[in-house]
Structure to design on (111 residues):
């Protein structure tokens, strides 16, 4: 079992994420903000991957925030959340309905 990460590499994808979060087919969308320089972020990412279900019923985006800090900054503005890393955001109906950072990120959020 593993997560099917969708790479988040372009600011325009945020519009797609908002639209997907309003689509009844998905109901919600997740964004995982990951720092490739942080051991805690690596641990959380590994924990998510090990606990993953066979197939997610909604899109799960992966953001390398070191490479795409501008997207991370825009996410903070757009969804009115403080930037943290690692961080998992759950987007529903175009707004962030849940977010967690560091060891508070759980696989249960992806159910």
């Amino acid at each position: 079992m593993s997560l099917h990460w969708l790479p988040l590499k372009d600011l325009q994808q945020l519009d797609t994420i908002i639209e997907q979060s309003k689509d009844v087919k998905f109901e919600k969308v997740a964004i995982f903000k990951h720092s490739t320089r942080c051991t805690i972020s690596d641990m959380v990412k590994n924990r998510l991957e090990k606990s993953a279900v066979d197939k997610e019923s909604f899109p799960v985006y992966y953001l390398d925030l070191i490479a795409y800090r501008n997207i991370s900054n825009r996410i903070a503005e757009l969804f009115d959340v403080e930037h943290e890393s690692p961080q998992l955001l759950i987007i529903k109906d175009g707004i962030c309905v849940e977010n967690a950072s560091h060891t508070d990120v759980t696989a249960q959020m992806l159910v």
Summary: The first helix runs from residue 13 to 22. Helices lie at 13-22, 39-50, 69-79. The domain at 5-110 is CATH 3.40.30.10 (Glutaredoxin).
